[in-house]
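About this split. The held-out portion is used to measure sequence recovery: a designer receives only the C-alpha cells and must propose an amino acid at every position. Recovery is the fraction of positions where the proposal matches the reference. Here is one held-out target exactly as it appears in the evaluation file.
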C-alpha cells in the first residue's frame, strides 16, 4: 500500500515491482549526473509499505441460566464448569464475557475482557433465582458479540449457553414493556404460554444463526427424564452444537464444552 507520512515498514518487493517499468527511462535521465552509477532508480512514488494484518481472536460469551428453574446442584455445576472454562479461555488468550439471566432481564455482568480474576469474581457474585428471560439473554449475547467484532480484535464469537432451556419471561417484559395477552392466542390469566415463549426464543436463535462468525454451543442441564427438549431445539435453530449432561457435574460440563470449543475455533 502507499505510505502516509513516515515509512516504518518498507515493502521491498512491492517497491521494486512499482519501479520496474520506469528503470530504462530513469537510467537515461541519470546519464551525466551523480546517480548514473545506481543499479536501481527508486523514486518517492514507488515506495510501498507493509500493512501488518492484525489476527482477530475469539470471544467466548458465557450465557448462564441463573433462574429458579435451575436446581441448586445444577447451578453449582454450571458455575464450576464456567470457572474451568474461563481459565481455559484465558490460557488461549481469548476474550471472555459473562451474561447471567434471571429475574426479568439478562445482564452483561462482564463485558469482553481477558481478565480471569475479574471474571471469576463476577461469577462468584452471580445472583440466582427468579424468572428465566432466555430470549433476552440471547439478544444480549448477539449485541455483545457484534460490538466486539466491530473493534477488529474479535473474529469468531462462541456463545456458550448453560441452561435447562426453560423460558418464562417474554422479551417485551425484559425490555420494560407489559405483555399483551392478545399477542398470544394461548395466553392464560394474562401470562404468555409455553408455546409463545418457545417460539420467541427460537426466533432469537435463528437470528444468531444468520450472524457471520457466530457459533452457539448449548449445554443442556435439564434432567433427561423430565426434559422438554427445548434446549436441543434452540441449538438446532441457531445451527449450533448441543450436549446434554445426564448428571450435574462441573467437570463433565467443562470437558464437553472444551472439546466443542476447540472444534468450533479450528473450523
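Reference sequence for scoring:
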Amino acid at each position: 500500500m502507499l505510505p502516509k507520512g513516515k515509512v516504518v515498514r518498507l515493502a521491498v518487493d512491492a517497491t521494486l515491482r512499482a519501479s520496474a517499468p520506469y528503470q530504462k527511462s530513469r537510467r537515461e535521465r541519470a546519464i551525466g549526473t551523480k546517480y548514473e552509477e545506481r543499479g536501481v532508480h527508486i523514486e518517492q512514488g514507488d515506495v510501498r509499505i507493509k500493512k501488518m494484518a492484525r489476527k482477530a481472536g475469539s470471544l467466548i460469551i458465557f450465557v448462564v441460566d441463573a433462574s429458579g428453574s435451575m436446581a441448586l446442584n445444577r447451578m453449582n455445576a454450571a458455575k464450576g464448569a464456567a470457572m474451568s472454562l474461563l481459565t481455559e479461555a484465558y490460557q488461549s488468550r481469548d476474550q471472555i464475557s459473562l451474561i447471567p439471566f434471571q429475574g426479568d432481564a439478562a445482564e452483561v455482568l462482564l463485558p469482553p475482557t481477558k481478565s480471569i480474576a475479574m471474571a471469576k469474581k463476577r461469577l462468584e457474585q452471580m445472583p440466582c433465582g427468579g424468572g428465566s428471560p432466555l430470549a433476552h439473554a440471547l439478544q444480549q449475547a448477539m449485541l455483545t458479540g457484534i460490538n466486539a467484532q466491530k473493534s477488529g480484535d474479535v473474529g469468531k464469537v462462541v456463545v456458550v449457553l448453560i441452561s435447562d432451556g426453560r423460558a418464562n419471561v417474554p422479551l417485551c417484559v425484559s425490555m420494560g414493556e407489559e405483555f399483551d395477552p392478545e399477542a398470544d392466542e394461548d395466553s392464560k390469566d394474562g401470562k404468555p404460554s409455553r408455546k409463545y415463549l418457545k417460539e420467541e426464543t427460537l426466533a432469537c436463535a435463528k437470528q444468531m444463526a444468520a450472524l457471520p462468525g457466530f457459533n452457539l454451543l448449548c449445554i443442556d442441564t435439564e434432567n433427561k427424564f423430565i426434559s422438554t427438549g427445548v434446549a436441543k431445539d434452540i441449538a438446532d435453530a441457531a445451527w449450533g452444537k448441543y450436549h446434554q449432561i445426564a448428571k450435574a457435574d462441573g467437570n463433565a460440563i467443562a470437558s464437553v464444552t472444551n472439546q466443542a470449543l476447540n472444534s468450533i475455533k479450528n473450523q
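Annotator remark: Strands lie at 57-65, 95-102, 105-106, 110-113, 154-163, 214-220, 241-244.
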